[in-house]
Amino acid sequence: MVSYKELGLVNTKEMFAKAIKGGYAIPAFNFNNMEQLQAIIKAAAEEKSPVILQVSKGARNYANATLLRFMAQGAVAYAKELGWENPQIVLHLDHGDSFELCKSCIDSGFSSVMIDGSHLPYEENVALTKKVCDFAHQYDVTVEGELGVLAGVEDEVSSDHHTYTDPEEVIDFVTRTGVDSLAISIGTSHGAYKFTPDQCTRDPKTGRLVPPPLAFNVLEAVEAKLPDFPIVLHGSSSVPQEYVDMINQYGGKLPDAIGIPEEELRKAAKMDVCKINIDSDSRLAMTAAVRKVFHDKPAEFDPRKYLGPARDEMEKLYKHKILNVLGSDGKAE
Ligand code: G3H
Ligand code: 13P
Ligand code: ZN
């Protein structure tokens, strides 16, 4: 067994306590390849932002679990090399779906895990989440649980409909399981199509879709029940329309892709939401940059010539999130 402490990683405890007090949120960026990881670490190191590196079950299957763990270990060394003396980096399992998967991650050096029992009947979610917490806490690993169901379709994470979190359940869930943070459902969803055109209105000037608002009343009700408790928002990509346009311009096909407006995420970050999950935006940035190179330079076949610009675009995106959406810059000097 490898302890995350030996790898120079930290858990989420102190990070979340500071974020709630300070009215900002920690970025949780998914990664499954080297360019994404380089871009995340460069952005976090340059902005001195605490950061959560998220690995999904699908990412582990894609990139190999051992390799990903060593990449995260390398990320700590890379952050120091970039001049970040005391990097605050969490290695987190995103959407763990079994005790065994959570245990395997903890055994290999993860400092935080999510056990997602949100699709299970309530009592089964409680039992599974408690089992993971009891194991993880022996090693000072923090645990995220989830109540409520997100809509949207994402490789390993799918649900056709959403059910907002019931604020009446949160005290019981948190007390009986011992979770360190709670993911809730207030209308966000995974992927690049967070709302159907029917759910939106159209801006008459631009013709762009305008999404319906998130259920801030649910978040407020949860906060009233659990004051100062770390809340997590999944499905928080904004689906920047400039990337969607670039992708469509250079041969892609993403009609009516739409995300969560940044103003809503800024508002959530100032509340008790202290972890905001972003994956799709990075995929869009990467795809847009690669498509542009393929279009502009059809003779190019050195992967560094298209993955390099993709990496630069992702770094720009991560910095923008840290500085202009989450407000986590300068919080890990
Ligand atoms: O919440 C889902 C994340 O975006 C991870 O997606 O399962 O396709 O790696 P993935
Ligand atoms: P997005 O698909 O909105 O980026 O959400 C990512 C996520 O919630 C990862 O758990
Ligand atoms: Zn998620």
Q: How much strand content do the residues show?
A: 15-25%
- Identify low-pLDDT runs: 153-158
> What is the CATH topology assignment?
TIM Barrel
CATH architecture: Alpha-Beta Barrel
Number of helices: 12
- The overall pLDDT, averaged over residues, is 96
Q: How many structural domains does the protein architecture include? A: 1
Query: In percent, how helical is the residue content?
Result: 40-55%
Small-molecule binders here are:
glyceraldehyde-3-phosphate, 1,3-dihydroxyacetonephosphate, zinc ion
Distance between the termini: 30 Å
Care to count the β-strands?
A: 12
Sheet having the most strands: 8 strands, parallel, barrel
* Net shape: globular
Helix-strand makeup class: alpha/beta
Based on CA atoms alone, the radius of gyration comes out at 19 Å
Strand order of the largest sheet: 1-2-3-4-5-8-11-12
Assign the CATH class. Answer: Alpha Beta
| Run of helices and strands | HEHEHHEHEHEEEHEEEHEHHEHH
Q: CATH superfamily assignment?
A: Aldolase class I
